[in-house]
Amino acid sequence: MKILLIEDEKITRITLTNTLRKEGFEVTSCATGAEGMDKLQREAYDLVITDLRLPKMNGIDILKAVKNQNPQTFVIIITAYASVETAVEALKIGAYDYLTKPFAPEKLIAMLKHIEHYHKIVGENKKLKEKLRYTEKDIIVGSSLITQKLIETVKVVAKNDYTVLIQGESGTGKEVVARALHSYSMRRNKPFVPINCAVIPETLMESELFGYEKGAFTGAQKRHAGYFERAEGGTLFLDDIDDLPLAMQVKLLRVLQEKEITPVGGTRARKIDVRVVGATKVDLQEKVANNEFREDLFYRLNIIPIKLSPLRERKDDIPALVEHFLHKHGAEDGRPYITSDLMEKLINYDWPGNVR
């Protein structure tokens, strides 16, 4: 658990920092509210422990700022006996608890253990929900040789951390394959964040991908995390990546090369740990030849290419797909089956939209 300690009394700050580190907590400490807010802008913390009385910026100001930035962050207030009423008021604003000086370190550690236990339960629930979601959405359905080879390819590719470019017609299952890559990888317990580059206006593309700082433009009243930051530790799926404007292609290339982003209005780059999976329904090499897509970005994305076959080329998958969708949707109507004649018609159909 990552903890930020803000305490102006040097002895108290050093003592608490050393005590908490011995208990296995990751602690960053500072002496002023301004320094604490600077650290909060640059890094995420699970818990903030702050003295109520600080020079210039007090603990209540910090509490409000923390809750405004990330309501999930816990805050513990340290206070002198004379200011207990203010500390109680802090609880109403959203503080987890408060401690009156002097206090035994064991009391603080007990609070932290409770918070840590809560984090563990929330994390386990999140993982369970992710597994259930993956079971429903990430299955690659099909019995054809083409699909079986695809599944084996996905399992092998998932173990590597390179960028992947998926090419296939609309409806061939590009996002399904991207989700399968994620769920088979070591990143499976981190976020899978899908976005469609074709639906984001060009004027918003940079701020949506990289986020923006408070005051970056009119209406930017607080810091906004972009898609890259939301996918931290996990996988970012960029569908219709061919629709990225050329100016954004340059910035995406830099992110892939440097593994860092700079939010709009920001002056400091932030390191990121995100696997990028791109997808396109067009021939990107043709776009490169027509100067509509950067060649250097294409090769950076195309480290591991996966090409998906249209349904008309793998008709052996149709019975399995029909059965899958019948059990998923048809059971509600009380008749999860079709006749052999209808199945034959489905197999003989060309499926111009594939599975859509």
UniProtKB/TrEMBL annotation:
GO terms for molecular function: ATP binding. Residues 2-116 form the Response regulatory domain. InterPro entries: AAA+_ATPase, AAA_lid_NorR, CheY-like_superfamily, P-loop_NTPase, Sig_transdc_resp-reg_receiver, Sigma_54_int, Sigma_54_int_dom_ATP-bd_1. CDD domains: AAA. Residues 140-356 form the Sigma-54 factor interaction domain. One of its GO terms (biological process) is phosphorelay signal transduction system. PROSITE patterns: RESPONSE_REGULATORY, SIGMA54_INTERACT_1, SIGMA54_INTERACT_4. This is Sigma-54-dependent Fis family transcriptional regulator. It comes from Caldithrix abyssi.
